[in-house]
Amino acid sequence: MGKQPTSLDIFVTHRRALLNYASSIVGSRAQAEDVVQEAWLRFDEASNGRFLDDSTSYLFRIVRNLALDGKRRLKRESQVITDDDFEAAANMSQNSPPSPEIVALYKDEYALVMAALDELPERTRMAFEMHRFGGAKLREIAVALDISLPLAHRLVGDALQHCKEKLGWP
Predict the structure, then answer these.
(1) pLDDT (tens place) for every residue of the chain, 170 residues total
(2) Contact, 148 vs 34, CB < 8 A?
(3) What's the CA angle centered on 127, arms 106 and 166, to 5 degrees?
(4) Domain ranges within the chain, ordered by starting residue
(5) What is the DSSP code string of 123-150?
(6) Which InterPro entries does this UniProt record tie to the protein (predicted)?
């Protein structure tokens, strides 16, 4: 009777196919690398050193789910607030001072957003502020905070979602 392959053996054997599969879903080889790495971590934790029935299918399913989740998250974030919205607001404030009505209208929302940011963990708040207020790219945030690119993306998304909830937005 032969030795059962370990979870690492299965991963290494199918890594290239997993990358191609993830790449076809997310559309980027770099993002696919992140998805496959995250899938490996989840797969290894789930297998916990034991052989799983139909391990290969399970590994591909993890990659598929992570890739689709990431794609959905990107779509949702792009629908919420775009960089164009921030640029339009910045241009509007530079071209003319806001009217008293505009100040009054957004004063409460501004206070809610600031309070929401204060509730966030420091790293999440910093990532959000760097991205939305400082214009830093997610890659720059990842380097500055010494975290992975997907984690930087998730932190910004989590902060944005938290602010939306505090504002009562859908």
Answers:
(1) 457 777 788 888 889 999 999 988 888 888 889 999 998 888 888 877 566 677 888 888 999 999 988 888 877 766 655 555 555 555 554 556 767 777 777 787 888 888 888 999 999 989 998 888 888 888 888 888 889 999 999 999 999 999 888 888 87
(2) yes
(3) 35
(4) 7-79, 81-167
(5) HHHHHHIIIIIS---HHHHHHHHT--HH
(6) RNA_pol_sigma-70-like, RNA_pol_sigma-70_dom, RNA_pol_sigma70_r2, RNA_pol_sigma70_r4_t2, RNA_pol_sigma_r2, RNA_pol_sigma_r3/r4-like, WH-like_DNA-bd_sf
User: At 151, is the secondary structure helix, strand, or coil?
Assistant: helix
Query: Which pTM was predicted?
Result: 0.46
Question: Nearest-CA neighbor of 18 among 105, 1, 10, 108?
Answer: 10
User: Taking the CB of residue 165, how many other CB atoms lie within 10 A of it?
Assistant: 11
H helix intervals, the chain: 7-26, 29-47, 55-80, 83-95, 100-119, 122-128, 138-145, 149-167
Structure tokens at 145: 């905070």
